[in-house]
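ok trying again, last paste got cut off:
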Amino acid sequence: MTGLDVEMYRRLLESSPEGVVLVDAQKPEHPVVYVNPGFEALTGYSGADLIGKNLRLLQADDRDQDARHRLREALGKGESCRVLLRNYRKDGTVFWNEMTVLPLRDAQGGITHFAGHHRDAGERLRIDPKLSRDSLSGAHQPTSVAIRDDRLTGLFTLPYLEELLKRDWGIAQREGRSIAVFAIDIDALDLYNTTFGRAAGDSAIRRVSHCLAGCLRRSSDVTARIDGGSLMAFAPGLSNEQALRLGQTMAERVRELRIHHPRSAVLRYVSVSVGVSAVVPGTKDDPSMLIEKSQRHLKLAKQSGRNQAA
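nice, full thing came through this time. structure:
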């Protein structure tokens, strides 16, 4: 990598509105080795406060969070994940940290670092960031938060996706730009569960979900689990052709996981079928129309042999 490349990447990271953190994956405590200005602004901590330390300090003593356990599990397995955590700034104020963690590998395939992308999800969740930690724990935790976080995968739930889709739908209508919806099913998941058990099936759902979410990395993209092995996603600004190519990439990336599925009639590995639909919304159109169309295309993908996008 040339000096110009290094400088360009440095500027890219430092100009990012999202908080970006790099931690050392080869040391047990996963110490922080880099934070960008966006993360300093998000948390109130300076780079000097964080370098060499584990980011659990942002959780203070608020450790009993399901998302924290999912994050730890993903790090232990070297997998990517997206979680929503209650975190605390340097001044003690609480905020909801929507974080996506991705493993970085060397030329030999070993994980050297984890990259974290962080943003304040308070506005999206309609939560007052000044609420005390007591009011955000136990029985007093807002129900609206619980229904937005899928416990199994760390993705969003369908109600939250629909809420965000309505918002972005209105924006797309005003700006005259397209929006794409993806309806996704894991093929023959019932046979997988019968063969290997429900725990193995849940693990496969998590791996596939993280893989699919990794295909939709823009901050405007949203991925949710509906139930079982059924997922849905939407991505603003994609034409139908672009969305179909992305759907095909999703199917390809899941195949590349090579999760053994000896009873699948499609191939010997876990696969997905993807229904794709994109449209520039008219003034009288409704987002439910696009969801229904993507579901119809999912049915077509299954009828055409599965393991593909349609």
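cool. The first helix runs from residue 3 to 15. The chain is about 40% helix and 25% strand.
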